[in-house]
C-alpha cells in the first residue's frame, strides 16, 4: 500500500512538472494555479463541502494533489459537479484517477 501511494504521488508530481514546463512560464503558471487553488479551497470550506466531501476522501486525494493542482484553473468550473459525486464515486474512479489526471489536457 505504501508503495502504491508513493507511485501515485510520484506520477502526480510528474504531471505537475510536465504541465508547468509545457506552460512555458512556470512562475506564472504556479502563481495562477495557487491563486485558483486558494480561492477554491476557501469557497469549498465556506460552503461546507470541505467537511462533507473532501476531508473524508483526503487520504486518497493527497497522493493525487500535485496533479490536481496542475489542473486547478481548468478544474475550477467543474468543481461543483465533481464535489457532488466525489463521495459516492471516488472508490470507482480512484484506480483510474492518475490516468485521468495525465490525460486531462
The secondary-structure class comes to mainly alpha
What value does the Rg take, in angstroms? 14 Å
Largest sheet: none
Order of helices and strands: HHHHHHHH
- Helicity level: over 70%
What is the strand content?
Answer: under 5%
Low-confidence stretches: none
* Strands, total number: 0
Strand-helix topology:
Blueprint: H1 2-23, H2 26-47, H3 49-54, H4 58-61, H5 65-70, H6 72-75, H7 79-93, H8 97-102
Structure description:
The structure is a single chain. The protein has 105 residues and is mostly helical. The chain has 8 helices and no strands. α1 (2-23) crosses α2 (26-47). It starts with a helix and ends with a helix.
Write out key terms for the chains shown.
single chain; 105 residues; mainly alpha
Summarize the structure.
The chain has 105 residues and is mainly α. It contains 8 helices and no strands. It has helices spanning 2-23, 26-47, 49-54, 58-61, 65-70, 72-75, 79-93, 97-102.
Amino acid at each position: 500500500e505504501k508503495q502504491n501511494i508513493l507511485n501515485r504521488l510520484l506520477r502526480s508530481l510528474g504531471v505537475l512538472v510536465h504541465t508547468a514546463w509545457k506552460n512555458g512560464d512556470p512562475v506564472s503558471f504556479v502563481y495562477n494555479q495557487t491563486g485558483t487553488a486558494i480561492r477554491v479551497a476557501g469557497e469549498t470550506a465556506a460552503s461546507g463541502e470541505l467537511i462533507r466531501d473532501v476531508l473524508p476522501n483526503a487520504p486518497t486525494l493527497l497522493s493525487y494533489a500535485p496533479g490536481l493542482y496542475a489542473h486547478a484553473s481548468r478544474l475550477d468550473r467543474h468543481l461543483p459537479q465533481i464535489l457532488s459525486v466525489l463521495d459516492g464515486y471516488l472508490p470507482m474512479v480512484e484506480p483510474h484517477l492518475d490516468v485521468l489526471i495525465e490525460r486531462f489536457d
